[in-house]
Amino acid sequence: MRWAIKTFLASTCLFGLLFVHFPSHAINTRLPQQASADVDAFRHDLLIQIAELERTAALSGWSAEQLQRVGYLWEAVGDETRAIAYWERAVALTPDEDTLRQLTLAYINEQHFQTALATLSQLQALLPDDNWALYYTALILAPTSPEEALTYAHPLLLHNAYGTLMQDLYSILNSGQDAFIIQSDVAALYASRRLWPLAEYAFQNVAENYAPYPDALAYAGLMRAMQNKSAQANIAQALALAPDSSTIRMIAGIERRIYQDYEASLAAIYQALALEPTDPVFYSELSLTYSGLGLYDEANYWSVVSRLLQGIGTVDTPPDQASSSDDDSEEVSIPTYDPGMGLSEDGMNNLADIVETEPDDQWMRAVYGWALLEEGKAEGGMTLIDAAYLNANDDMRIAFLKARAHYILGELDEALALYELIASTEDPISELAQADLNALR
To answer: Are 372 and 380 in contact (CB under 8 A)?
Structure first.
């Protein structure tokens, strides 16, 4: 099995088909007023309990059980740093199995992996045959010390709970591939299993070891977003390194959707589509963002387009939409589309049918033209793109495709004129046009 970094991003909800699909409701950062008031009241009650325990301990001293309890309360409040401080004190008094496990998970969440390994060593000293400790030790070691990780993964290959993931991890670590491929595949595996803190760590490790690697930076940022952490710095750095990356533009769109900034999400996804207009994944992600906006007709249309471009169903017999609903299963499926490789024969036929049945959709007409260009049919492709631009010359996405087509065909004057026109607008596509202009000059 291959989990290569370029093909991991995908499924049927959240990353889309080329991305690990995250449901559009994955993280809700905006609560209704009553819900927000309820949360505030709950936090207040927790803080009162903490204060009472602190007061009691000031009079009679701390027990390990009290420290553990306050740690759980701080975790419930949302302050894991303070929780860790109390659990560390509890373990110093009494190395308790449950507290050591809780500390390990907290260290992983906070990206303190060396400290997590030390805590796992304590747990193994307490419980030499503990499979939980073996499991997390293998997961932490795999991105940076694959050979050592193998020794921890091997005893768990047939384990009821951990066996499936350990088998996949063992296969990657024992594949004999270059270190870059192994590290990338480990990161992709963790993301596909929704192990967000570990996936962030693994992608960040790849980004640092093979810098500059903008895709890995962006993926690390997306893993942060899935944990409700700020991802803007990662994504901004990735875009600065690769402004023409459709993958990174798509990640930017997904990250904005996670935080319910749907207009910014749409802008980024349309940028990705302008760069890779035949990618079914991007239309799936577009559908999810429209769903977030409550525009369900648009969401349904682009969801159908996505699946038709994959060759699923036909225009006369549309694909079953029920199967494209958010998938919260443990593992995220991996799609078959490869960027830049064009559509399958069924996907190409469906695209032609879409253009025929939706004659007013000039974007899809231009996309069909672009698909023909990818097949080497320059004359037919350019004819369709020209027709789309003639009917919708205020659509900067179509203008951008036309500029790129002229450039590919060696018609530089025409390409430059269109790029300059697009760059002079305030449309989100102007950013892409300016990047191309900078590269051409």
So the answer is: yes
Summarised one tens digit per residue, pLDDT across range 6-59 is 334 433 233 333 344 444 434 444 445 556 677 888 999 999 999 999 999 999
206 within 8 A of 235, measured Cβ to Cβ: no
C-beta neighbour count of 56 within 10 angstroms: 13
Segment 365-399, tens digit of pLDDT: 999 999 999 999 999 999 999 999 999 999 999 99
* Cis amide prior to 212 (ω within 30 degrees): yes
Please choose, from the candidates 299, 244, 295, the residue with its C-alpha nearest in 3D space to the C-alpha of residue 272: 244
For residue 85, give every residue at least 6 positions away whose Cβ sits within 8 Å of its Cβ, in sequence order, or none: 71
Instruction: Using alpha carbons only, give the angle 101, 103, 109 rounded to the nearest 5 degrees.
Output: 105
Enumerate residues 6+ apart whose C-beta is below 8 A from 353.
308, 314, 315, 316
Instruction: Give which of 144, 428, 135, 377 is closest to 273, Cα–Cα.
Output: 428
Q: What is the longest distance spanned by two Cα atoms in the chain? A: 86
Tokens for 33, please give them: 């007023």
CATH 1.25.40.10 assigned to 359-441: yes
Q: What phi and psi values does residue 425 have, to the nearest 5 degrees?
A: -95, 175
Tokens of 328: 């919260």
pLDDT of residue 420: 98
Determine the 3-state secondary structure of 310 from DSSP: coil
CA distance linking residue 285 with residue 20, whole number of Å: 11
Q: Which of 202, 152, 209, 146 is nearest to 173 (CA)?
A: 146
Q: Is the Cβ–Cβ distance between 8 and 334 less than 8 Å?
A: yes
Contact (CB, 8 A) for 278 and 367: yes
**What value does the mean pLDDT take over residues 341-367?**
94
CA distance 43 to 396: 48
Residue 153: name the closest of 355, 144, 165, 190 by CA.
Answer: 165
Other Cβ atoms less than 10 A from the Cβ of 40: the count is 11
| CB burial string 385-396: b at 16+ within 10 A, e below | beebbeebeebb
Opening angle at CA 202, ends 200 and 208, nearest 5: 100
